[in-house]
Structure formats: structure tokens, C-alpha cells
Amino acid sequence: MKLVSVETPEKSVCKMTFSATAEELEAASNAVYERTRATYTIKGFAKGEADRAQIEADRGEHTFWYDAINDLMDKDVPALYEAAMAEHGFHAVDEPVYDLVSVKKDEGFVATATTALQPELKLTKTTGFKAECVTPEVTDKEIDAVLERRRAAAAELVPHKGPAVKGNIVHLDYEGLLEGKPFKGGTAQNQTLQLGSGRMIPGFEEGILGHKGGEEFEIFVTFPTRYFAKDLAGKPVIFKIKLHDVCVRQLPALNSDFAKKAGKVDTMDEFRAQIRQQLHDGKHASALNRAKDQILTQLADAAEGEIPSVLVESTYQQEMERVQQQLQMQRLSLDRYLSQIHQTRESFTAAVHAAAEKNTRARMALLQVAQNEGLVPTEEDIDKTLSQRAERAKKTLEEIKAGTNVEALRRNEGIRRAADYVIEHSTIEEK
Prior knowledge:
Layout: E1 2-10, E2 13-20, H1 22-36, H2 52-59, H3 65-88, E3 97-104, E4 108-116, E5 122-123, E6 130-133, H4 140-153, E7 156-159, E8 169-178, E9 181-194, H5 204-208, E10 216-222, E11 236-250, H6 256-263, H7 268-301, E12 303-304, H8 309-329, H9 334-340, H10 345-372, H11 379-393, H12 397-402, H13 406-424, E13 427-430
Parallel strand pairs: 6-13
Antiparallel strand pairs: 1-2, 2-4, 3-4, 5-12, 7-11, 8-9, 8-11, 10-11
């Protein structure tokens, strides 16, 4: 296998092409056969006794090809890529993207590796930036909201003798019957349920309203037509209910006892002051981070030059994936989220892409600052960091190194140090 070409389709982007002849591809597949032949059991042969032709006749002519291609893509191509990077003195700032271009039995194998190289930026300014840290005032309303959350967390369940109403907490046993027979997932004991929470299927919680603790009764409900269990969807069922008790959530009084228990202070005035300080500290930390971001944005604006498009695209894709993950956690689709923030898909993706370009430019500027100011970690620094990881993981340093992209670690730590350096040599005005 060999390196065919090294191209720079754009500034600070390198594209390498690799190829293997048909003979080399065949040799790779034969190596896979020799490595795995003992695992094959073919009818008429003892395990491991069938030759390659017999295995391929039984399993298909490309049986060993797929692993051979994987070997080339996972081992040979990366090895040639690393050698070529060293030979040409290239400095990558991201992981290469490997692509299989073509593979044919009679023609061979072709693959590419595309990577972003460190751009040479003109840094018109690296220190002396200015930003404002504006910390919003803490309002009494915000303090009240925190107190109410603390009260809710400290609430106690107290038995209620009257009929159940929405908001009550009940403890119950239930047994569901479909056509007179229990069904899977329809029976439970000592369950806690807040009426009105919508946890159960429509009609279940409503059927408990008006009943008192100690009562036994039946609820007649129908499963939704789109219920996930198809054997229950749209079916009428009966739930036999044993209602153990009905409870109300009793909130503690906002007095000195509550202050001592929840805030470890003597009075409510002291507790409110404590909460005010906590809210202020949180707001100040957020405001300070925004000010630091402003400084790094100014650094990006002061960095002139072309940024690798593949690096910007990689950053953009990572940010979009992060957004999608957050929306999934909130059970929101992207389109619904966009309707809530009154943005089109086009304007949103354009904004994310612009932010990705700005972020990438700032990172490349910081990497250059790190190199100029001697902030890039030494081998000793890297070994110290990895030794700590090894100790935590109960592994050797060599084991940790083998599973670590050391250059990426060195690059990211250099960028972090440079960010601290730029911010320390700039001015943040508190307001």
C-alpha cells in the first residue's frame, strides 16, 4: 500500500490519497483468512479444517474482504497518514477524516484522509482587551421563589381524612383486568401517586377523586388508541383499587425553625440574606464568564487570516449534535424549539455556523498565542497529567498513553492556558 498524493485543496487543509493494488488487497484478505480460519465451522469439515475456497463457497466470496478493508482503513492508512504528516512537517489541529473512495477485486483499494492544518494567522492584538462584567441585581421575587422551592423540598405528607382531590398524594394497590383477566404491567402494590400528575392513563387518576383512604373500588377506563402496548391500545379495562390513604403535602412555616433546619442560620432575615448572596454569586459567575467570552471574541476579531473550512464544519456539527441532545432530553423537536424562539431553520443554522466560525477562529488564535508565549505543555507536563489519570484508573502510564491522543491533549491544554493568559492580560470592569 502507498501514498499516492498530497494535496491542499484550500489553505490549511490537507488531503491525502492512498491506494492498494488488487494483489495487495488480496494479500490483506488472505491475512484475515489465516487469522480467523480456526473460528469457522463448515458442514462436512471439523472446526478450522476448511480452506479459504470452501469457506467462501459456504459463506460468500467476500467473507474475508470486509475485515481486510477494515484492516487497511484502521491500520495501514492511518500509519501512512502519520508518516506523511511527519515528512511534510504538517501540524494537524483536528482528527483526520478517513473516506473509502473505492474498492474492487480486480482494481484494488483507494482511500483518502482529509485534515485541518494549523493556519498562520496575523494577530493584530493579543492582550489589553476590555469587557464589562454586569451582574444583575437579585430581586425579592427571586429569593421568594428559592424559599418556596426549599419549602416544597422540606414538605411532609400528612394523612387527610376527607375525599381525595387534585394535588393529593395517595398510596394504593391496583390490579388491572382485561376481559376479566389480569394483564402484563397492570398490577402494582404500595404505589405513590400524585393526583393530577398525568402519570397514569386518562381516567385512572380521575377515578380516584372523591374516594377516601381505606376504600376499595373499581375504575372503568379505556387505554388510548395509540398506546405503546398494541394488545391494550383502545381496549376497555377495569382496575380494582385498594386506596390505603390520602395525604396532603404540608409545607413548613417560614420561621426561625425552618431557617435553622434549611439554612443553618438563626433567623429568616439571615436565611434570606444567605440566599441573596448565593443568587448573587451565581449571577456574578455567569456575568464573569460572559465577559471572558467577550474578550476571547475580541481576540478572534483581531485574528486575520483564513480558517480551515473542515475545522469550522466539524465545530458546527458538534454544536448541532449538542443542541439535538439537549432537545431530546427536553422531549422537543428542533422545529418545535425553533417555533418557540421564533426562528426559521435557515436563520438558526446560519447563526450556529457563524458561532462555529468565531469559536474556531478564537481557538486557532489561542493556539498561536500558546506557541508564541511558551504555554504549550511539555512532555513532562503531559506525563504528569496522564500519570494522574493512570492512578485514578488503576492503570500504567503506558496503558493510558496508548488510549490517549497526546497531541490533541497537548493542543487543548495549550489553548486553555492561552485563554487564561489573554484574560489575565486584559481588563474586566465590574458593574
